[in-house]
Design brief:
The chain has one helix and five strands, in the order βββββα. The protein has 64 residues and is of the alpha+beta class.
């Protein structure tokens, strides 16, 4: 699993990751954390054959 922690966006810290799953796919996962608040996880937003695409998708989703 590869993880990317982005700079704070609108008071939240997005944490994007690409987790390998079956058939050579990678799940784009996202967790957001607000200082002093709970961590919210969004698992398997979508699936990609390329790990870099999964990370890019999860990172962009964290900025919406």
């Amino acid at each position: 699993m590869e993880t990317v922690v982005s700079a704070s966006h609108q008071g939240y810290r997005p944490i994007a990751s690409a987790c390998p799953v079956r058939y050579g796919l990678h799940a784009a996962d996202l967790a957001t954390e607000k200082p002093g608040g709970a961590l919210k996880a969004f698992i398997a937003l979508d699936y990609f054959f390329d790990r870099a695409h999964a990370l890019t998708y999860a990172t962009r989703s964290g900025r919406i």
